[in-house]
Amino acid sequence: MKSFTEWFFTTLGAAVVIYYGAKLLLFTRMLYPKRWFPLTKSFFSSMGEWAVVTGASEGIGRQYAFALAEQGMNVVIMSRTKMTLDKVAKEISETTRRLVKVIVVDFTKDDVFADIEEQLKYLDIGVLVNNVGMMPSVVPRRFLEDEDLDQTIKRVINCNVKTMVKMCKIILPGMENRRKGVIVNIASGIASIPFPMYSLYAASKIFVERFSQGLYAEYKDKGIIIQAVTPFGVSTRMVGYQQTNATMLAPQDFVTSSLQYIRAGDKTYGSLCHMFLGWLLHTIPLKILHTEFMLQGLKEYVERKQAEKSSSPVVKEA
After folding, report:
1. Active site residue 201
2. How far is it, in rounded angstroms, from Cα 101 to Cα 167?
3. Contacts with 18 (C-beta within 8 Å, 6 or more apart), sequence order
4. Cα maximum dimension of the chain
5. What phi and psi, each to the nearest 5 degrees, are found at residue 7?
6. Which position among 201, 216, 261, 269 bears the catalytic label?
7. Helix or strand or coil: residue 45?
8. Domain limits of the chain?
9. What is the mean pLDDT of residues 4-10?
10. Which CATH fold would you assign to the domain 37-284?
11. CA distance 47 to 68
12. Cβ atoms of 96 and 122 closer than 8 Å
């Protein structure tokens, strides 16, 4: 009996060491993406002639469109504001000398995808970035505090959930036929845990994450990369253009970093600092994070930041 007990605990200990050793190795790989997940200069352009980016008029989507054009791809940019899209298209075209196609669409609406499919059907699409998304309110609030809750539910589900699924339905068949392609679906770091005060938004983004991981398992053997990217703070309109710092990244810096992890698996945080934030968030017990004290503190913090931004002087260029 003694020998069996010794054997059992020795085997168990070895298994634990191997398990955590493997996790440590995987973690260290994320520290050096260029070494572990190298990309050739023609990696993205080899996937197809065109890239499609939703929500591309500003922020993260705009930077993905620029980055992919700089990689030698023509780009289709999609958003609801034609004037802004035309400006972005001109900037991309003049900077990169690539073709840019503009599709004006409001993804919060119901029936918009037949026209999109018609406009894309003859394009050789190698990359899809599902970036478009909406947050009901920058300031945290409880689910029932929304003044027009029914419309908010509809708009969030249409924009954050339905659009991603329908765009995959439109573009994935062509990638499957060619046995190559990249789909990047932008989720959110706050969906890492149940996140009160942003419940609807966080829930919509965990759908993005799980759907992406499921598709990756289904299509990875067909040469298609499908990845959920889950950023925390990126200085965009969604977070009130907060000042950049070690964790609040500029869109260009985040996109540059995230593209380095494109071969790193079905989910990444897109940057090293956001990976540490994700780890930290998972180490704090939910009983602490979900206390009324923490929730009220979060609300007051965001309100204070918004007030500081509103009171800051605006300098206009001549």
Report:
1. yes
2. 16
3. none
4. 86
5. -60, -45
6. 201
7. helix
8. 37-284
9. 66
10. Rossmann fold (3.40.50)
11. 11
12. no
